[in-house]
Amino acid sequence: MAVTIDLKGKKAIVFGIANDKSIAWHIAKRLNDAGCRIAAAYQERVEQLFLPLMKELNNPVYAKCDVVSDDLLNSFFTLVKNEFENVDFLIHSIAFAKREHLQGKFMNVDRRGYQVAHEVSAYSLAEISRRTVPMMKNGGSIIAMTYLGSEKVAPGYNIMGVAKAALESSVRYLAYDLGEHQIRVNAISAGPIATMAASGIANFSEMLLNYVAKAPLKRNITADEVADCALFLCSDLSKAITGQVIFVDAGYNVMGI
Ligand SMILES: NC(=O)c1ccc[n+]([C@@H]2O[C@H](COP(=O)([O-])OP(=O)(O)OC[C@H]3O[C@@H](n4cnc5c(N)ncnc54)[C@H](O)[C@@H]3O)[C@@H](O)[C@H]2O)c1
Asked: What's the pTM value of the predicted model, to 2 decimals?
């Protein structure tokens, strides 16, 4: 049976495009190519790399937004409401922790560093879901990006692992909150991919080598493979799947040694 995923007439909000390496960019492009219109929120600091990418999308809507600013959240969501009557998908592909908290010992994280990592990387999922859900009038799919460091120790990942645990738990609670509206909420747990965010992780190149050596598929994964999974989670092929963390990691997570 040939399966074509057609998202014509659908609309997605995407947080997390910084450049052409961003996982969010690969997802936005895949959804766009399936016929979906994109509303992208970007941080001011990435503007120069972000803006040229918008030329590759079909009639996108975009505006600056930072999830720690109520003013910017208000203006971005007002723009989306004015442009899109209805929203079908929300992609949360953002995370942040201070560089000094992504190396050395976890216990050295300070109170502010702990708060910032959680506010940007976990709390923001509830915040942007709450703002999107009133526009999801025909059900929908919300996807967050996570990493195995939430449940196992990945040396150096530190505070981000703790924030990802909060994010994954948020996915489950949101799935329960929103299920009655036929809105599904899932996370994709990706293997390591060289992106701007990954460059802040002290042991990143070691992680890449480790996956090649130990993952059942004996290789690393690509952002396009994550985008494939996101397309599946946006489609009706996944209509009974919610509250899950789905691994796109060449199988690495099943290994005990
Ligand atoms: N690259 C990997 O190896 C990997 C693996 C698993 C999960 N992830 C997750 O994937 C997601 C995307 O990361 P990426 O690897 O594509 O890196 P990336 O640097 O391209 O994307 C991170 C994005 O977060 C945005 N961001 C940071 N702080 C923000 C804020 N306050 N408000 C709004 N946006 C903010 C940045 O602008 C950027 O667009 C993250 O959640 C990351 O933890 C990445």
From this structure: 0.98
